[in-house]
UniProtKB/TrEMBL annotation:
SUPFAM superfamilies: Protein kinase-like (PK-like). Gene3D superfamilies: Transferase(Phosphotransferase) domain 1 (1.10.510.10). It comes from Aerosakkonema funiforme FACHB-1375. Keywords: ATP-binding, Kinase, Nucleotide-binding, Serine/threonine-protein kinase, Transferase. The keyword Nucleotide-binding applies. Its EC number is 2.7.11.1. The lineage of its organism: Bacteria, Bacillati, Cyanobacteriota, Cyanophyceae, Oscillatoriophycideae. It is an enzyme of class 2 (transferase). ATP binds at residue 43. Residues 14-228 form the Protein kinase domain. This is non-specific serine/threonine protein kinase. InterPro entries: Kinase-like_dom_sf, Prot_kinase_dom, Protein_kinase_ATP_BS. Pfam families: Pkinase. CDD domains: STKc_PknB_like.
Length: 228
């Protein structure tokens, strides 16, 4: 069941304002933080989609449980990061049978919206350097983002600050729901083959593709077609 505007969670600690987005893995909501003030983001797994996958025998109930465990484990990993250009995880909680992650709310636009006009080189390089610094923090912990792209970079309103968001939290868990999870044009070649090793270079490729997009206003070519 989807949460609707005005619905309260955690005994009134949060009030749902609207749904921000929905994908294969998760549903993201904007909520009012009644306890601490201000707005926050609450992310949960897309349980409706998972149940459909179970009914159509695309995944098993056991895989759903593993996916939920991974969701929360990865959120705990993200808490270790302390970097101005990485979205902050505040806490996790259970609402009924749903696992939830509370994230910092970042007012502003995605880099994807901004590149509908070609950005000046100086501004584009500033954002890429900031996200490169964020990825260095991620890689220091032996983690990977795996989905760096303009849609997953927020630019804070009124500032020239880029923030890396949407780690998807379940990347690399191999079942039908996680295939083709990355976006064409930004995914390195090794992401198309589960058996291939992935590393920091996987995210670096995506960051370079992002720079291409913001400087040209065009989507990078599909590496699976070019083969390099």
């Amino acid at each position: 069941m989807n949460w609707t505007t005005g619905q309260q969670l955690q005994n009134g600690d949060y009030t749902i304002k609207c749904e921000l987005g929905r994908g294969r893995f998760g549903v993201t909501y904007l909520a009012k933080d009644n306890k601490n003030g201000g707005d926050t983001v609450i992310k949960t797994l897309n349980y409706e989609q998972l149940d459909i996958q179970i009914k159509t025998h695309q995944i098993t109930p056991e895989e759903k449980i593993k996916l939920e465990t991974r969701f929360l484990d990865e959120a705990d990993k993200l808490r270790r990061y302390n970097h101005p250009h990485i979205v902050k995880v505040k806490k996790t909680f259970k609402e009924g049978d749903r696992s939830c992650i509370v994230l910092e709310y970042i007012p502003g636009d995605t880099l994807n919206r901004l590149v509908k006009r070609v950005l000046p080189e100086k501004e584009a390089l500033r954002y890429i350097q900031q996200i490169g610094s964020a990825l260095s923090e991620v890689h220091k912990h032996k983690d990977l983002h795996r989905d760096v792209k303009p849609d997953n970079i927020m630019i804070r309103a009124g500032k020239y600050d880029a923030v890396l968001i949407d780690f998807e939290l379940v990347r690399g868990f191999e079942h039908p729901l996680s295939r083709q999870a990355t976006e064409v044009g930004f995914a390195a070649l090794e992401l198309y083959t589960p058996q291939k090793d992935k590393g920091a270079y996987t995210d670096v490729y995506a960051l370079a593709a992002t720079l291409y997009a913001v400087l040209t206003g065009e989507k990078p070519p599909d590496v699976a077609l070019t083969g390099c």
